[in-house]
């Protein structure tokens, strides 16, 4: 099973709302990633978790708060977002956070901030 | 920083035609992946190919690490091949850097 799942598929939220995105994998991978993709642009890395610990934060604003409660699950908590945060949010996983490890992506959550 | 350049940026084909997409990268490669992003946004893994040649049906890929490029070949293209093709490069760390993509349109 090489599947990464993400929920919800779509999310519309106001600037004062708090919401969460969820990502799950059952491949035994110990590295999980959040990417952000704006329209007509490539994905950009936001966060990397390795063995449930945050190892990379690509200078992401604090209104995005990641969480890795266990090795299969990755959350992204959203609070006080701006309209420019509207994008496709992609989760990925790999066996380990090592250079030669293939990354597998979920279907994404399309977020609209009003 | 690391540069990943894809060409061509756009490609329009008739069904049944063949095509070659190119990815140039600026550093020593540890990870090179090709993805197809469908209209719904899903990134589908096509190849993990830091070196050598692989084939999967009508698709094949070659990476020449010493010359810092990778090629994706699509033969007998179908309308379902339409979408954006990304190459993603991994160097000395586990961060993947994506190229800007090639937008492929296959017309019936």
Estimated share of beta-strand residues of chain B: over 45%
Q: Give a quick account of the main beta sheet of chain B: strands, pairing sense, barrel closure.
A: 6 strands, mixed
| Amino- and carboxy-terminal Cα gap of chain A | 36 Å
Fraction in beta strands of chain A: over 45%
Written account of the structure:
The complex is a heterodimer of chains A (114) and B (108). Chain A is 0% helix and 56% strand. Chain A has strands at 4-7, 10-13, 18-25, 31-37, 44-50, 53-57, 64-70, 73-79, 87-94, 104-105, 109-113. In chain A, the strands form 2 sheets. In chain A, strands 2, 4, 5, 6, 9, 10 and 11 form a 7-stranded mixed sheet that branches. Chain A has a 4-stranded antiparallel sheet with strand order 1-3-8-7, with no helix packed on it. In chain A, strand 4 and strand 5 (44-50) form a beta hairpin. Chain A is globular and about 40 Å long. The model of chain A has no long low-confidence stretch (mean pLDDT 94). Chain B is mostly beta strands and 108 residues long. Helix content of chain B is 0%, strand content 58%. Chain B contains no helices and 11 strands. The model of chain B has no long low-confidence stretch (mean pLDDT 94). Chains A and B meet through strand 5, strand 9 and strand 10 of A and strand 4, strand 5 and strand 9 of B.
């Amino acid at each position: 099973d090489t599947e990464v799942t993400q929920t919800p598929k779509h999310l519309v939220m106001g600037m004062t709302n708090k919401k969460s995105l969820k990502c799950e994998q059952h491949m035994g991978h110990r590295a999980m990633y959040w990417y952000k993709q704006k329209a007509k642009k490539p994905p950009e890395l936001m966060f990397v978790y390795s063995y449930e610990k945050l190892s990379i934060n690509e200078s992401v604003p604090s209104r995005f708060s990641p969480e890795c409660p266990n090795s299969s699950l990755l959350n992204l908590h959203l609070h006080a977002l701006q309209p420019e945060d509207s994008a496709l949010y992609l989760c990925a996983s790999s066996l380990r956070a090592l250079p030669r490890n293939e990354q597998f992506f979920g279907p994404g959550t399309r977020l609209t901030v009003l | 920083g690391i540069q990943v350049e894809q060409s061509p940026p756009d490609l329009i084909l008739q069904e049944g035609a063949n095509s070659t997409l190119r990815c140039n990268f600026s550093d020593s490669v540890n990870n090179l992946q090709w993805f197809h992003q469908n209209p719904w946004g899903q990134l589908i893994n096509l190849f993990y190919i830091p070196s050598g040649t692989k084939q999967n049906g009508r698709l094949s890929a070659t990476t020449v690490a010493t010359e810092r490029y990778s090629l994706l070949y699509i033969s007998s293209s179908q309308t379902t091949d339409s979408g954006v093709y990304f190459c993603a490069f991994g160097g000395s760390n586990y961060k993947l850097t994506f190229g800007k993509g090639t937008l492929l349109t296959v017309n019936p």
